[in-house]
Amino acid sequence: MSRDALPRSAPQRSALRRAALADLAGLRARHPQVFSVPLRRRLLVAGVVAGLAGLALVAMVRLDFSLLRILTGLHRLGEFAVLMLPPSPEGQGLVFLKALAETLAIAFLGTLTAALLALPVALLAARNVMPNVFLRFTVKRGFDVIRAVDVLIWALIWINVVGLGPFAGALAIACSDFGAFGKLFSEAIEAADRRPQEGVTAAGGSPLHRVRFGLLPGVLPVLASQVLYFFESNTRSATIIGIVGAGGIGQYLTELIRVLEMQQVAFLVLMILVTVAGIDWVSGRLRRAIIGAPA
Amino acid sequence: MTLPLDRLPPARASALAGAYAASVAGARRRGLALLVLLLALVALAGFAAEVRPLTLAENIRNFTAYIAQIVPPLTLSNLGGDLAAWYWGLPKWLALLGETLLMAYLGTLFGGLAAFALCFAAASNLVASRAVRFGTRRLLEICRTVPEVVFALIFVIAFGLGPMVGVLALAIHTAGALGKLFAEVVENIDMKPVEGLTATGASWVETVRFAVMPQVLSNFASYGLLRFEINVRGAGVMGFVGAGGIGQEFLVAIRNFYYSDVSAILLLIILTVIGIDLATERLRHHLLGREAAR
Description:
The structure holds two protein chains of two kinds. Chain A is 77% helix and 0% strand. Chain A is mainly α.
């Protein structure tokens, strides 16, 4: 695809273009519908664009946007950028590595716990497993409520229960992912192929047999790939959970930014970038292996 | 309904069971190995994350107690008065909630515009230069890997406290996330209109405008709406680092144990997020439905 990408245009060389431009009036007369957009559509587009821009203007006034602040801020950001070079751990490399390991552990445990807990509950929210409308509806709205609470808020709540530290972070990620997984899993289960399930039922299997042998083998690869995808994004979330004191690399990041130790900040950010890219790569390969494998 | 099936003779049944066991033995072994590996990783991670199940078991009462504490004292006899006491700060909170929504809107808009400007340069079917594509993609990657709260932390120091910082942080993260999705949409377009325009000698910008944009705009809008929903959630916690919105008020309430305030604000946030969720979903189905009907 990349080989035969668009040639950088060659307007002068194209005979077709010259011919078309010479006959522009004729083309207009012959294909009027191409050249004129209906007025209603034009008004609609203009209205939507004007509405969006107007709202943006109102928002900028309400939120105290000021050009002066932006310019001085950009100037100071430039100074920070200079201060960041060269990135260096300044003797704290081992501490940072330990914090990074903690971050990964939080993401891993949180994702795994959430997935294990969400699977049985998601079955209750799937139309093809749970015939009871009322129960299904309740479970689905429950997922929505849990999902609506940000992971940082969950972290604040769990800190009240188990104290400061990475354990609270893992619980927070588990909670917020439980909602997300519940929704995704139940959708995947509803999209599952009916035929294997009918086969199991026809052979005299119980509803549990149907779920275990007719449903799960089909959807597990899909679910596993979603879990891997979330593990990736949770590594990113786990880096910020330390801001409220729930462990991981975020703690150091917050402190170092506050005291303007920009070289160490740059080092930490680089560490995060490399780690996320690494996990991205590994989970991408795993995902392809799982999805590609005959389920 | 059960059909009277004839039982297999025992010899035949055991032969079939043996064949089945032999055929799944490999998969079982692999599954077992995977389980062992997973358990080892769990143990390792549990050690690193200082998991203390005993503390959890001991303090899980705290969780329920906490929930019980933040539930406001509502009595049936004095419902109106209790509600008013619970939501004593409603005007202030609604204003902050409005600010949060505006932050999310501006962040999504600015980030979306930046993503729109960058995504065509990252698409392999429109840009032949490897260097341009590589540079754009790495830029987008950095924007989306660094969490928005980290950007907010740095920007708060550079720009000062306030919602503007939250908007900028959200916008940068959004640009990275949407840029990647947009580029993928662009790479999946039908190339025939592009070839047609190239044949007439259209410039690159003209090709993008008349051959690519009509195909991708509704998808872009749908992804933008999805991102808006995510950004509403993100804007809600920007206040934790002093970057505007309702987060600051919530943090104060939770840190100072103003229990009924915690539940009041939390409920407001949940209702807003779910409302936005439902609204954008309808809008998205509408947009994509029109696309499918075309």
